[in-house]
Design goal:
heterodimer, A: about 110 residues, alpha+beta, four-stranded antiparallel sheet, two-stranded antiparallel sheet, 2 helices, globular, B: about 400 residues, mainly alpha, about 0% strand, elongated
Chain lengths: ~110, ~400
């Protein structure tokens, strides 16, 4: 079972060197224990472009699809047997990156 | 067999077997929704069949077998398009034997899943009452004063989340157990209080049933986890509170405070059982948690034949321990009420005053102040506090009591 672990914050690319070091330790652990799938940090919503090509012509619009004070700044995709395992890992991830986190299952 | 006998047999089977049937089906089919629906259908079938054929010798086994068949029927209908192999497996496994201890274990799994921390508190309450206690959706909706459709949706969404997010169906590991048990107890205490605080005439009787339901579920957990001190503590607390329930509201629907209750009407059997549990925890010599301390406070009160015989120094000492575990201002307020009896209303009023910033919106803060001011002869200030308490109180029995007290001021 895979889960998307989203990091929520009100500024992007704002991690301190200490936070980055803690994230590296956490990532090593995810890999060593077979939970690692993928992870990455994201640019600010202002760098986003929305594309809608459902009609005749592709429409491009500047900015994110929804404006909000807090947004997705990074994520992990983890492999976990069930939600208890995922929540435990996410709690450690939240501590490591010092940010709020959301866990959502893949279908 | 008379219609009344059959109805009684079904009611009893529902009380005793519902959680077992749902739990064993959830285990087998890995799906709460299928388990709930099949269990409900099995009970509906029982109403017809038991009336015609008589009550089977083992109602629990009959219900489990019937519910299993209903679940398999549903899965077959849904899998009509194929997957013959899966169907063959279901056929092969019809009516598996289950040792009794494994069934108990399954009911625990069910409780822990329904009270999972990834679900909202109100959802945990609703799911536990539906899946474990077997209340119907309309009953739960009425008990919590929520629209039936809204309650149905809440339960449906919870089942969908459990499935999609894969909330596990198991008893938590030893390391996680204390936190998870305390989550389960919080759900049961909330159910109990919802029933207990629903006093006064015109209150839906379903709400009163919640106290009985909470006690029944806590007894079940106690049977499944006999060594857990907080489980014993919560059960004792509920029993000692329930014992005083009828004395707590007058014939005219007014709240009767602990000091004014007719102690002769307290339920002696419930008190004896509660005291036994409190003594058992004292003998265990393990540092008590908050439910055990609350139960011990209740035990001190219920040990006094007359309010004047209350061992207030013991009550205050217990509150001192509780404050160390739980720094909430409500605990501090209750401590102050006991302090008034021990050291007088002046000392208590000073302690209550310090809670004002955090409790200004809580009716019992103002009611407590009003009572202390009245005892100090400060009628004008007392009246203002009663006014504020009446304005904030939501319960008819409490409002009636506070209004009478205010109007008696000189």
């Amino acid at each position: 079972m895979q889960y998307l672990v989203s990091v929520i914050n009100d500024t992007a690319n704002s991690g301190t060197p200490e936070e980055q070091a803690a994230i590296d330790v956490f990532n090593d652990r995810l890999m060593a224990e077979g939970h690692w799938v993928f992870a990455g940090g994201l640019g600010a919503p202002s760098s986003a472009t929305v594309i809608d090509n459902r009609g005749e012509e592709a429409m491009f619009s500047d900015g994110p699809f929804v404006e909000s004070k807090e947004y997705l700044v990074g994520f992990w995709i983890i492999e976990a047997a069930d939600l208890d395992v995922a929540l435990k890992l996410a709690a450690e991830g939240s501590k490591a990156c010092n940010r709020k986190i959301e866990v959502r299952p893949f279908l | 067999m008379s219609v009344a006998d059959v109805r009684e047999a079904i009611t009893q089977a529902h009380r005793e077997e519902w959680a077992r049937v749902v739990a064993s089906l959830t285990r087998r089919f890995g799906d709460l929704d299928i388990a709930e629906e099949a269990a409900a259908e099995a009970f509906a079938t029982a109403i017809e069949r038991w009336a015609a054929d008589g009550v089977p010798p083992s109602p629990g086994a009959w219900l489990t077998t019937t519910a299993n068949r209903k679940a398999i029927d549903r899965i077959r209908r849904e899998n009509k398009r194929g997957d013959k192999q899966k169907e063959a497996q279901l056929l092969y496994d019809d009516d598996p034997p289950e040792p009794p201890d494994a069934i108990d274990d399954e009911r625990l799994r069910l409780i822990f899943t329904c009270c999972h921390p990834a679900l909202a508190m109100e959802t945990r309450v609703a799911l536990t009452l539906r899946m474990v206690a077997g209340l119907t959706v309309p009953e739960i909706a009425r008990a919590f004063l929520v629209q039936e459709t809204a309650m149905g949706q809440r339960i449906t969404r919870a089942k969908a989340k459990i499935k999609a997010a894969r909330i596990p169906y198991r008893v938590p590991s030893a390391e996680d157990l204390p936190a998870r048990v305390s989550g389960v107890l919080a759900v049961l205490f909330l159910v109990f209080n919802e029933g207990y605080l629903a006093t006064g005439p015109g209150t839906d009787p379903v709400r009163h049933d919640l106290t009985a339901e909470a006690i029944r579920l806590t007894r079940l957990i106690r049977a499944l986890m006999p060594d857990d001190g907080e489980v014993a503590g919560l059960l004792a607390l509920m029993l000692l509170t329930e014992a005083r329930r009828t004395a707590r509201v007058s014939a005219s629907g007014e709240l009767v405070t602990l000091g004014e209750q007719d102690r002769g009407t307290w339920d002696v059997a419930l008190i004896a059982e509660g005291h036994r549990l409190v003594r058992e925890r004292l003998a265990a010599r393990v540092a008590p948690g908050r439910y055990q301390i609350l139960a011990a406070i209740s035990a001190v009160h219920t040990s006094a034949r007359d309010v004047r015989d209350t061992d207030w120094s013991q009550v205050v000492a217990l509150y001192d321990r509780l404050v160390r575990l739980d720094p909430s201002p409500i605990i501090a307020l209750n401590r102050a009420i006991a302090v008034a009896e021990l050291d007088g209303p002046e000392v208590a009023l000073a302690a209550v005053g310090r809670l004002e910033p955090r409790l200004a919106g809580y009716h019992l803060y103002h009611a407590t102040r009003a009572d202390l001011l009245r005892r100090l002869g400060r009628s004008r200030q007392s009246r203002a506090s009663y006014d504020k308490a009446i304005e904030l109180a939501g319960n008819t029995a409490e409002t009636a009591y506070l209004t009478r007290r205010r109007d008696q001021l000189g």
